[in-house]
Sequence to fold (397 residues):
Amino acid sequence: MLRVGLTGGIGAGKSTVARRLAERGAVLVDADVIAREVVAAGSEGLAAISDAFGPEVIGADGEMDRPAVASIVFGDPDARRRLDGIVHPRVRARSDELIAAADMPPSTSNGMSCTTIASGSAAFGLVVVVGLDAEERVARLVGARGMAEADARARIAAQADDAARRAAADVWLDNSGSQEDTRRRVDALWDERLVPFQENLRAGRVARSGPLRLVDPDPTWPEQARRLAERIAVAAGERGRGVEHVGSTAVPGLAAKNVLDLQLAVDSMDDADALADALAAAGFPPGPETTADHPEPAAPDPSRWERRHHASADPGRPAHLHVRVHGSPAWTYALRMRDWLRANPDARAEYESLERVAASSDTDPDPTRHVAHRERWFAAADARARTWASCAGWSVT
Fold:
């Protein structure tokens, strides 16, 4: 099942987007509704809130006095964190229960769940953020909900800002237009990304992609890689020894193919094989071996360069996952080559020139000569990177 996290600031229109996703067939797990359930009268959650903030936050009817709690936590980050520490774990646990219990008849759209969340989470295959300018949100809260302007601004200020939300977003869904505009955007997201993603998960296959071209460096590549790495780390659990962004997209300022390369370290190839199902469920099914972004040198003992290859099932974010033994030559090579290119502008320029020549060789009558030239360059580059690592005192742990 594809789990989609849906978030957005107060007044951004998250409920509108959630309703449309439910109309298209998603199972909606509303964290806002659950958040009220877990602190209802007589609940353990409400008792914990009373212990934290005093019995005066419980009204005469036994329910939480929301205005009283709001007056305590808005404007007080420490109080807000205490409240979140009580509510959020209970919301997550209840959400997991509802998703696990959801009856997914074959006629519904692929068995997809959409959970409204307070912030981005590695537990979701994709996070969608509903975006709207703060001033427009204020206008909607005042006009549509009758909220006092000062209250609206205080609530917006107490939440994450747009920069933090964009950092959590796999998809930024603009809600600045009409409701019909929003419906069209949600439908396009559903048809072009969510449904194909879910179908790939069900089939255990990687997303199909067309020809990949060299593109200018994207400053958001590291942030995109970080989100994927967090999901991979959660899926790997105790068998994982860390996830690193490697390859060309991990080198700032370097033109590259728009594919993220990630490296998961494990203690043994037995661990790598044992993780296959968990990684597939997290959106990275086993994929066919591909030519490495940075080709690995030939070695007399091929087992020392052994890896397991997975790739993204998400059609909107091409990515390769290389599972390698921690400390192995292949694991070390990927990190050393990345860091050497990061540290050496001349080497970056050489490599980019090499890649641009290769990208223009599609119509060459003898493209193999470019492959051979590339392999020779990397063989020499490996020796240069080793020298640099020795002189710079570079090491990995």
Remarks:
- The radius of gyration is 25 Å.
- The CA atoms of residues 244 and 263 lie 5 Å apart.
- DSSP finds 15 helices and eleven strands in the chain.
- The longest helix spans residues 77-101.
